[in-house]
Please model this.
Amino acid sequence: MIAGRDGRRARLHRPAVAPARRRHGIGTVLIRAAEERFAKFGAFRAGAVVPHDNVLARHAWSAAGYAPQPQWSRWVKALS
Model:
């Protein structure tokens, strides 16, 4: 998992658990550990990048207490 912050906000990207190890709470432990670390550094909110078509990820993030923000979308630009 990639976990980073800009001082006040924190972002979580691409947590991964081997398919054979899923549904054992490993993802939950990873997310909680990142959240606890973010809180220690003063972050007040955590966000996750979740692909729209990744149904398993959407369920996992929802179970961890995250929800989509319909008023935002991700904007990107290829640099090469």
Observations:
- The beta strands are 2-5, 9-13, 45-49.
- The radius of gyration is 13 Å.
- The mean pLDDT is 88.
- The chain has two helices and three strands.
